[in-house]
Each structure stands twice: as C-alpha cells, then as structure tokens.
Sequence to fold (250 residues):
Amino acid sequence: MAFLTDRKRASGLGSAHKGTQHFWSMTVSSVGLLVLVPLFVFTFGPMLGKPYEEVIAMFSRPFPAVIAGLTIAVGMMHFKNGVQVAIEDYTSGLTRKILIIAMICLSYALAAIGLFSIARIAL
Amino acid sequence: MADVNRGNRPLSPHLQVYRPQLTSITSILTRITGIALLAGAVLVVWWFLAAASGPEYFAFADGVITSWIGDLVMFGSVWALWYHTLAGVRHLVWDTGRGFDLTTATQMAWGVIIGSVALAIFTVVVI
Fold:
C-alpha cells in the first residue's frame, strides 16, 4: 500500500466510481481559470462599450482571442462539473436527471457559441 | 425492520438547522456565485456572438450590456467572479490539508469577502 498515492487509493471508490476523477477535473480547471480569469477580465472588460471596429481589431489579435476562447471553454466545463454537484446535493429523481442533462447541454452550447464567435472574429 | 423509526430521524447539518457562521455563509456564497455566474457567461457569449454577426447587431448587444441594468449585472458578475476565484483558492488550500483551524478559516473567510469587494471596485475603476 505504501507504494500507492492517496489519490490512487481513492480512485474508483464511491457509488458512481467517478468521484475522484470529478474532483481532480475541478482542481485542474480551477487552477487553469486562476490564470485565465484575470487575463480575460482585463482584456475583455475594457472592450465593453467600445466601437465595433476597435472590438474586432482587439479580438483579431492572437493573445486576446486565445485567452477569451480558453476562458469560455474551460469556464463552461468547470461550470458543467460544478453545477452537477450542486444539483445532486439539492434535488433527486427525475428532476435531478433533467437538470443535469439541461446544464450539460447549456454548458456545451455556450462553449461552442463562444468559440465559434471568437474564431469568426479572429479569422 | 418493522420497528425502524422512519419519521423522526435526526437531520444532517443543513442551512435550515445550522446557526449561520462566517465560514458557512462564505461557503454557500461560493456555490451561489458560481451558479449566478451563468448569467454573466450568457451575456458575454451573446456579446461575442453579436460582434461576430456584424456592426448593427453588435451595437444592439453592446447597448444592452452597457445600459444601467446591464452595468448592474456586469458589476454583480465581476464581484461574483472575484469572490468565486478567491473562495476557490481557499478550497485549493484546504485540499492540501492546510488551514482547517478556526482562526485560519475565519481569516480566509474575511480575506475572501474583503478581497472580492476590493478587486471588484479595482476592476471597475481600471476598466
């Protein structure tokens, strides 16, 4: 046992057998967002209320476009996993299933729309 | 199994049966801000979609987001974003097994509250 790490020993336990992986994916996306969020806030924020041409010029540059795309994609995956735990904590049965499926669909839809829009602006 | 008490079992600690404390309030706010940020995310994605669609639609979306109600939602979102970020750092610290004693937990709770308000005001001033 001494050769196994704590995480390896927890992996696969629990009723769904996926809790450890879920926890790890939240940890990874939260650390990623810790870097992305400040960069996004201070590149996207100043563009609110700016003229159309200036906004297009800004997000045609590689850095702001990649930061915006990554923040939306990683953020929505973090939301998808996080909101699932909240739904599981407060609801049960059919309501739980409907809410989880709806939130997964919404998360992927928002990520796809965001990435499509940024790609269309940048390219 | 027939004599099992099914109606009068003790409840697990929950919001309704727990005296509110700084640590529990800051904890539930982490979840509330995380879920509320969906509104900000929808607005931001819509703004990008509008920018990708052309100048007329962008002017409409940008006008909505920079209206007084849009400003209110965006300010709420930026505070929620910083709150959730700082509270997330607190969770990353806890995940390493550190900071569980009451003094440290309370200090981190105040750090999250004061830090998020300060960062939100700083963001609005800078932007």
In short: Chain B has one domain: 22-126. The domain at 22-126 of chain B is CATH 1.20.1300.10 (3 helical TM bundles of succinate and fumarate reductases). Residues 21 and 106 of chain B are 10 Å apart (CA to CA). Chain B is about 75% helix and 0% strand.
